[in-house]
Amino acid sequence: MSARLLLPAVLLVAAATAGVGVLAREVYQRPAVAQGDQVAAPVTGSSASVPRSAQPGSGAVQLSVDAAQHPDGQRVREVLQQFFDAINTHDYDQWTKTVTAHRVQGTSEIEWSADYESSKDGSILVHRIESVTPTRLRVMMTFTSTQDVARAPAELQSDCIHWRVVYPIQEERGALRIDSSPGGSTSRFTPC
């Protein structure tokens, strides 16, 4: 290629690259299109935090834009909403309809009631949903719980806890159900 044609070709490639970069930035910065209050717009800054006096926040399960785009996003949101509603209303029978049969067998109503008798969960956000197998999902989410200090985890005696969890969700009898984590807990938590 001659020197006369090289400079215009380089300029054309640079201009095209810059144009694609600007277009990509605009696409990735677009806010979420909310479906009611089910999809959460990207959250930045401390203004998105719930004041300590209003913890745990709303009990509505929200999906990040990424989670909402997963083919099972709406089904995951629905089962998690039923799960957290059962905890917040202290309804063991409803809770048993949201978890796997194996998990129900391992948790008696007396034990469950004692564990959740003072719990309220809110600020529930599903960040990511990953397909593990055709019938199993991994759901990464955060939520806040308030409870009597005596009912808090032994590792963190607090009346308000921010949780980062990974829930395995299994299809069972045609419905999604929350399963137990294999090999123990995959939770992290900090005080509010």
Explain what you see.
This protein has helices at 3-29, 65-68, 73-88, 92-96, 101-105, 109-116; strands spanning 61-63, 120-133, 136-146, 160-172, 175-178, 188-191. With 192 residues, the chain is an alpha+beta fold. Strands 1, 2, 3, 4, 5 and 6 form a six-stranded mixed beta sheet that branches. The longest helix is centred in the N-terminal third of the chain and has 27 residues, at 3-29. The protein is globular, with a radius of gyration of 22 Å. The chain starts with a helix and ends with a strand. Mean pLDDT is 81; it is low at 10-36 and 41-48.
How would you summarize this macromolecular structure in one to three sentences?
The chain has helices at about 5-30, 65-70, 75-90, 90-95, 100-105, 110-115, and strands at about 60-65, 120-135, 135-145, 160-170, 175-180, 190. It has about 190 residues and is of the alpha+beta class. Strands 1, 2, 3, 4, 5 and 6 form a six-stranded mixed beta sheet that branches.
